[in-house]
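Exercise 7. Given the encoded structure of a 291-residue chain, write a plausible sequence.
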């Protein structure tokens, strides 16, 4: 129709859009070389048992050390990687690097047997039929038990529920890998759909807990969500815990697992190793905190 044609003309001749498109193309091609050039890095953030202060595991979060732009955050390039297909190579690099790191930590620091590494994966990776085999190979290469790996999938990307996704989810589950729904509360999947997914843990998005301390109605809302998830037989992890008060409120509502700047920011492996070492000696919790 006419409206569409009009938009078409605008996009064709708008120099700003043309420029934006060129930048995008440039970034995509840079991203493809970034993996081989060793410009990607994994940061790790502890996942904490808020009742005891014990570190239950870490989440791997990718960063891009861009030669001219500096440290680029994943929200800026993961969507691009997904659209361009580069996410498959990127995801493979993340999985290998994370699992290799866990293997190395298992030797250098004292980790509990149920310590887990959480890795974010994109639905594009999940839809590949080879995915489960690749995960199995990486784990066996590094002698890491499948139960020590948890894959995180964002709620909003899972709503399609295709056959290939289901195939991979069941394969991963059979392998013994843990599955999380990430960013719960930001998507729009039906609760019934969530209930039928083969996942063990729901990570509640930080946008839901922002003012849980000040706002009683927000607190009731979070309490209801907690109960709902738990009544589906799943565990809850709260993301974005930034203050002691938030941690205490969440605990009082019956949620024992949290992750956030209050406990520790995502950090490079060496820094995380000192945290893990301190935790093994019982001195990890932020100063002044007693649970
Ligand atoms: P996510 O998986 O939900 O990861 C949590 C994000 O929240 C991280 O952002 C983390 O730095 C941030 N965060 C943690 N605690 C706090 C807090 O207390 N306050 C605030 N304001 N933020 C907190 P980051 O590292 O920028 O990652 C953003 C997203 O990029 C991730 O969200 C995940 O969806 C995606 N991502 C990161 N690494 C990978 C990866 O290797 N593969 C894929 N497919 N996606 C990734
Ligand atoms: Mg995540
Ligand atoms: Mg999240
Ligand atoms: Mg996210």
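Solution.
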């Amino acid at each position: 129709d006419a409206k569409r044609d009009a938009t078409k003309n605008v996009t064709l001749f708008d120099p700003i859009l043309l420029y934006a498109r060129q930048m995008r193309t440039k970034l995509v091609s840079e991203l493809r070389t970034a993996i081989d050039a060793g410009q990607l890095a994994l940061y790790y953030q502890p996942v904490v048992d808020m009742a005891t202060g014990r570190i239950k595991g870490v989440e791997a979060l990718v960063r891009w050390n861009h030669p001219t732009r500096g440290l680029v955050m994943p929200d800026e390039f993961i969507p691009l990687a997904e659209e361009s297909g580069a996410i498959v190579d990127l995801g493979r690099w993340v999985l290998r690097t994370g699992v290799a790191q866990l293997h190395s930590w298992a030797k250098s620091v004292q980790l509990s047997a149920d310590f887990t590494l959480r890795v974010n994966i994109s639905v594009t990776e999940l839809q590949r039929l080879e995915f489960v085999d690749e995960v199995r190979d990486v784990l066996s290469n590094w002698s890491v038990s499948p139960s020590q790996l948890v894959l995180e999938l964002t709620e909003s990307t899972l709503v399609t529920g295709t056959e290939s996704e289901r195939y991979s989810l069941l394969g991963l589950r059979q392998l013994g890998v843990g599955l999380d729904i990430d960013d719960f509360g930001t998507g729009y999947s039906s609760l019934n759909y969530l209930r039928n997914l083969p996942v063990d843990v729901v990570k509640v998005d930080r946008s839901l807990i922002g003012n849980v301390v000040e706002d009683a109605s927000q607190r009731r809302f979070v309490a209801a969500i907690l109960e709902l998830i738990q009544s589906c037989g799943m565990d809850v992890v709260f993301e974005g815990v930034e203050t002691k008060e938030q941690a205490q409120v969440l605990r009082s509502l019956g949620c024992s697992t949290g992750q956030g700047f209050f406990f520790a920011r995502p950090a490079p492996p060496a820094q995380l190793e000192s945290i893990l070492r301190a935790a093994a000696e019982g001195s990890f919790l932020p100063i002044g905190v007693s649970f």
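Remark. Residues 212 and 218 are 6 Å apart (CA to CA). Students should compare their own answers with the one above.
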